[in-house]
Write a structure and sequence with these properties.
Elements (H helix, E strand, L loop, with lengths): L1 E2 L6 H4 L10 H7 L7 E6 L2 E9 L9 E7 L5 H19 L9 E5 L7 H16 L2 E12 L13 E3 L6 H9 L6 H7 L4 H11 L12 E4 L5 E9 L4 E8 L8 H14 L6 E6 L3 H9 L3 E11 L1
Parallel strand pairs: 10-11
Antiparallel strand pairs: 1-2, 2-3, 3-4, 5-12, 6-11, 6-12, 7-8, 8-9, 9-10
Helix pairs in contact: 3-4, 5-7
């Protein structure tokens, strides 16, 4: 059990299939991954299991564990055992002492529970994580808008403009945390104030996108009162709806449809091949808004965390 020696061993690492394999070479070039964060378990030259972390370029510690695979042709007990041994060994060598491991995420089919083989693959990975102390945090829908999907004309109920300054968006984000259905946001609110949670989200994620900030939109009524906002962006892999929200006092009027359509329209004008988004399975109002806007549920994501 060891990390790969470098890019020359990427073909070895990619012997086990996963949707992220095609991105790994570029991730190494861009600094999202490091060879010492990409571990393999080998029996001779046979790849039995692998694990890898992802980070933003320049980060000193990993941000997410997003690859954990085992050879599914191994006997059932052996699959889990080798995965647990590899993950424990890799975490011990890779992560700072005393800090909880970073969140785990895995992309899975939208109907993963319906097929015995697919379900076993997902549950085996979850069992490996559970045996190292992780627990399921949330399951999310992965959504996609594709070119050619009709976009409704603006309803005229709202006017859209970029944020006035750097302070406006964090202030609006603070307000929308009241009554949020997002699991990550709700967890943040158990540990910090709404203002602190909004500021951290803004600084750690939204402010780091290199796509144009003049894509960002605040939705206002004719009297200039803010109703909500949308953050269209590009995360280096895809055009995305990075954040979408309606202020608490304006919920229930389907303003979400107008705001999402505006964000989608901005990205569609950039001639992108797709627009991605995600939301918690339990956030039914948000999922319904994406469905009305023509987004399809092409996958799901499992998030697991350690205490």
């Amino acid at each position: 059990m060891r990390p790969i020696a470098g890019r020359e061993e990427l073909s070895l690492f990619c012997r086990l299939p996963y949707v992220l394999n095609d991105e790994l070479s570029d991730d190494l070039v861009q600094g999202h991954r490091r060879p010492e964060w990409m571990w393999v378990a080998l029996a001779g030259d046979r790849l039995l299991a692998r694990a890898a972390w992802w980070s933003r370029p320049g980060d000193r510690v990993p941000l997410h564990l997003d690859i954990l695979d085992v050879d599914d042709s191994l006997p059932a007990p052996g699959q889990v055992d080798v995965g647990v041994r590899l993950l424990r060994t890799a975490m011990s060598a890779t992560l700072p002492n005393g800090s909880p491991p970073p969140e785990y995420s895995r992309f899975i089919p939208p109907d993963w529970r319906d097929g015995a083989a697919t379900r076993r693959i997902v549950e085996d990975r979850m069992t490996i994580l559970e045996r190292t102390g992780a627990r399921l945090f949330v399951e999310r829908l992965r959504l996609e808008w594709r070119p050619g999907t009709p976009l409704p004309e603006p309803s005229g109920r709202l006017t859209f403009c970029p944020p006035r300054d750097h302070a406006e968006l964090p202030a609006l984000m603070t307000q929308v945390l009241d009554g949020t259905l997002d699991a990550h946001s709700r967890h943040d609110l158990t540990r910090m104030s709404a203002e602190a949670a909004a500021t951290r989200h803004y600084e750690d994620e939204l402010a780091r996108y290199t796509s144009p900030r003049d894509w960002w939109r605040v939705a206002v009524l004719p009297n200039a009162e803010p109703v909500g906002f949308v953050i269209p962006a590009h995360n280096g892999y895809n055009a995305i709806i990075a954040y979408l929200a309606v202020l608490p006092r304006h919920r229930g009027h389907r303003y979400i449809d107008d705001i999402l359509n505006e964000g989608t329209r901005i990205l569609a004008q950039q001639d992108v091949p797709r627009i991605r988004a995600s939301t918690d399975v339990g956030n039914v109002p948000m999922a319904n808004a994406f469905q009305r806007a023509g987004y399809v549920n092409f996958g799901r994501e499992i998030n697991m965390t350690w205490s």
